[in-house]
Amino acid sequence: FWTDVSEEAIKQTYINQTGSVVQNVIISGLVSPDGLACDWIGKKLYWTDSETNRIEVANLNGTSRKVLFWQDLDQPRAIALDPAHGYMYWTDWGETPRIERAGMDSSTRKIIVDSDIYWPNGLTIDLDEQKLYWADAKLSFIHRANLDGSFRQKVVEGSLTHPFALTLSGDTLYWTDWQTRSIHACNKRTGEKRREILSALYSPMDIQVLSPDRQPYFHTPCEENNGGCSHLCLLSPRDPFYSCACPTGVQLEDDGRTCKSGAEEVLLLARRTDLRRISLDMPDFTDIILQIDNIRHAIAIDYDPVEGYIYWTDDDVRAIRRAYLDGSGAQTLVTTEINHPDGIAVDWVARNLYWTDTGTDRIEVTRLNGTSRKILISENLDEPRAIVLNPVMGYMYWTDWGESPKIECAYLDGSERRVLVNTSLGWPNGLALDLEKDKLYWGDAKTDKIEVINVDGTMRKTLLEDKLPHIFGFTLLGDYIYWTDWQRRSIERVHKIKASRDIIIDQLPDLMGLKATSVTKVFGTNSCAENNGGCSHLCFFTPQETRCACPIGLELLSDMKTCIIPEAFLVFTSRAAIHRISLETNNNDVAIPLTGVKEASALDFDVSDNRIYWTDVSLKTISRAFMNGSSVEHVIEFGLDYPEGMAVDWMGKNLYWADTGTNRIEVARLDGQYRQVLVWKDLDNPRSLALDPTKGYMYWTEWGGKPRIVRAYMDGTNSITLVDKVGRANDLTIDYADQRLYWTDLDTSMIESSNMLGQEREIIADDLPHPFGLTQYSDYIYWTDWNLHSIERADKTSGKNRTLIQGHLDFVMDILVFHSSRQDGLNDCVQNNGHCGHLCLAIPNGYRCGCAAHYTLDPNSRNCSSPASFLLFSQKSAISRMIPDDQQSPDIILPVHGLRNVKAIDYDPLDKLIYWVDGRQNIIKRAKDDGTQASLHGPFTVMSTPNQSQNPEKQPHDLSIDIYSHTLYWTCEATNSINVHRLNGESIGMVLRGDHDRPRAIVVNAERGYMYFTNMQERAPKIERAALDGTEREVLFTTGLIRPVALVIDNKLGKLFWVDADLKRIESCDLSGANRVTLEDSNILQPMGLTVLGNHLYWIDRQQQMIERVEKVNGYKRTRIQGRIAHLTGIHAVEELDMEEFSAHPCSRDNGGCSHICIAKGDGTPRCSCPEHLVLLQNLLTCGEPPTCSPDQFTCATGEIDCIPMAWRCDGFPECDDQSDEDSCPICSASQFQCEKGQCIDAHLRCNGEIDCQDKSDEADCDS
């Protein structure tokens, strides 16, 4: 047996048995097991642990483990046993070093040596002579004494360096020494015959002699029937020379032999990454870690004594979990809509589980198995934390440490809520109920007090108010309150009446919640205990009655016990909430528990998926969630202004919406993918939208100068006006069964109806104050009225038989009936999306495949291709794409997240990635056009510290991509340099930097191996050209420039274009700088960017908020392409990539073989080069560190050896690692002799009797 302190384990294997495996005996709860002793008679292992400061015992297989000593131990180390007399001995080298002995059953403990002792390390017993030997590593001696510590004698003195462990055999003493790294021996009585047995050991630790003499057999009372003990039979020095003992934390029965089945009262403890249990039955309070996986940030903990489950919350995996008391049977119960579940409570009678969540600010409940979830309280909670239940009285209590801290109570179903305490509170973290005395205790981490109050809110008193720096977990059992303290890192307890306190555990970090509980004893009962109170789902016992309740989405029948899934209900938006009212059970309205709704406007649903969709005109988003409020997600987040109309195409699984701000009607898949603009011309404030996917038509109302109702195909084509003599028509609704349209007219306050062609108009109601929202279901219409604050219903044909459904409602925007009959029928898109790659759009008698904006339908008219040539333009916090002269779709904002301050943009047509400079974080990022890969794979960043908001060392200004080498060139304002990165984010290095240089705008002409940049030197701006490695610099222009802000190259045309923001003109020249001409110099106010697409040169004007273009060759036909775009910052054109031309470029394949920079030469071959800090090696491909060798030395090409004397070059003996000193050696000149191995020497040295060649060949064959 041996201990392993780094693996924190005690292990075993068999000696002299081949193939026997190493097994762990003890692994949990060990930190530094420094001493180990085997009781060969009682078959036990005893060990010390200098970190936990405990001495423990267990059976040889690790079972029935028990803590023997846990007090007054400081640094226990060596341990030795004398089973014949029932004694154990150990050394302690802590603050007060000593050697102690005690009975092996932990009786009769006594200090036997405490003088002239400092670091007592080794310890062994001479069983024959009954002597105790020990080594002291600081005082450098080995002493011995009688087993009671008397008659102390020196054995070896003064000359030891650092003895560690010792053992003996016969007359010889053996010990290990840390400093000499050896094993030494001497005579055990005299200390003579000192000798070194074995040396040069790595780190000799413990030592034992294996010999039968060391473990003689004798009979003990434990041999027969384990001494009658149920678990441990431990030897003892006192009559009857043994005693029965139990595993840690378990008590003996009164018979003194049998152990109880386990601990009866335990303290359960949540630490950040583990759960522990501590028995309260025994005084040692040993914490045992439960073997449960994947605990990442446990916070709250509770226990159910009926089934024996521990319940806990985890803030990191965002889940509520449970497991048995021994750690087995772990299950995850709740994972959705869990943010910061800080409090948890078990109703052990009704079998329900309650929790608080400071992220969602709710108190919720489920059954103990995680089913039937229901939100009990979601209003006016700020930071709810601790929660406790009283199932006997029917109350729950919780703390809230928000802005105005308070302790509240309510019935167990969340009703009859009231505040108990709201004065003199700070952070009420802990809460505990004394059910027998009807008192409520709490611990406050800010006022640093423990207080108590009667459960009715009277008689507030302070129990404890000193040394309580930060209470967190808090629990009560019997007469004691237990709590964890974050700052003291301790668990303490206080007597609830006497206020005396003691520490349970000290110095344990990351303490969270805790729960003191009886393991099996159950307190109290109520009527929910019997058959769940007759309820089908949730049973709540309240002071008034037993109440049945339903989880979200179910409704209670009139028997008030059974929950059913309702067929139909009204759903409506009301500012920051979306409500539902069951149309069958006449239950009052319920807010769907959605997070993050600000101003919901239009509403629709997808019955097959059980989801609702809504637009938010304040957040400018379209979102969706399940009907129970879970899984809220934004579907469309970009390019919306006032999305006030929206409808779900439940057959094609598409989402249509109308935006009165952008004057567009758009479509996308239900998850927001493949967005396309359907109608954007001749639209005047489109407002309400309705779909008839069976027939392939969509209908909308317009509220502009001439309000009207319009019909078009669902692909946006073939629009016709159906109704033009109408006011502002709202909430257009289709009666699919009777094929009629319904709408409310806000200008006449009427509800009207027509057939599907806008004819046979009928007034359904004309006596209403202010009808607004409208829907139809079966034989009824339902509408909302803004003046009456109500929802009413009437017969759909006559408008008679009016019934009030709901009153007291605020500004209901949209209303609809959620029912499967509203989404029936079939069309060609239902099957397999009509085999369309992107969108399947219904049209009368068929369908058409559609593509995302700017994507084009392939000739096979099923799949879509991404646009090959287009313009990208950036605003401060948006990047848009447009295709000039495209009649199919307008410009669109790309769904790229996290844009704060876009300064420049570029595009890699190979991987189809957009790159941009983020001026707020000073980094370069990238994303696809659908927004993916922006942050997920870590944005491509060109700086070392992306977490700083302002990074002074790096400040990217402009960027330009070399598509052939997959590199990105960027200018830096902070270091005034030009730098190169690979597109995967690796830095290549700096290529240009000079004392007076200030490079800003940059464009790479990789086709010809050059880059062009503006150099904004003080009062003398220049436009320069250089090779891609920064060499061959030449200034193209110094005159006629004030502030050139943007450059662009047209390689086919062989032209460079630039725009000067102060001269307000656009000029061009040849790539060499010749033939400079002005293209445009009138009416340009604040030019920012420049680019070439096709035959045109485009630029943006920030002040005029527009994009303009001219013909690039002559500057003719100036036209405005796009106006009213605020905060323009950049523009970049993407031309279709010619793959043949691409492959022909010398750098396109494997970077031309270059390790760093590849430059295309005029003859179509690659030239490799390096950034400033590296040099090109002899192979002309690879860059390496520059040499540091002196002129009279030779530099090896690669390898560990750098420099060798020049004389060794070509001497026939390779000295460089790579043998480069013997490569391409010269042929000797006429006045030289060439040695055999290639070295050259002066010819007159041949045969002069002295050896000059390294290979001695100059003195060979001299006779001939």
How would you describe what is shown here?
The protein has 1264 residues and is mostly beta strands. The protein folds into 7 domains: 1-115, TolB, C-terminal domain (Neuraminidase, 6 Propeller); 297-307 and 335-518, Neuraminidase; 531-564, Laminin (Ribbon), CATH 2.10.25.10; 569-827, Neuraminidase, CATH 2.120.10.30; 871-944 and 951-1144, Neuraminidase (6 Propeller), CATH 2.120.10.30; 1188-1225, Low-density Lipoprotein Receptor (Irregular); 1229-1263, Low-density Lipoprotein Receptor. 0% of the residues lie in helices and 45% in strands. It has 1 helix and 108 strands. The chain has a 4-stranded antiparallel beta sheet with strand order 4-5-6-7, with no helix packed on it. Strands 8-9-10-11 form a 4-stranded antiparallel beta sheet, with no helix packed on it. Strands 12-13-14-15 form a 4-stranded antiparallel beta sheet, with no helix packed on it. A hairpin with a 4-residue loop joins strand 13 (131-136) and strand 14 (141-146). The longest helix is centred in the C-terminal third of the chain and has 6 residues, at 1139-1144. It is flat and about 120 Å long.
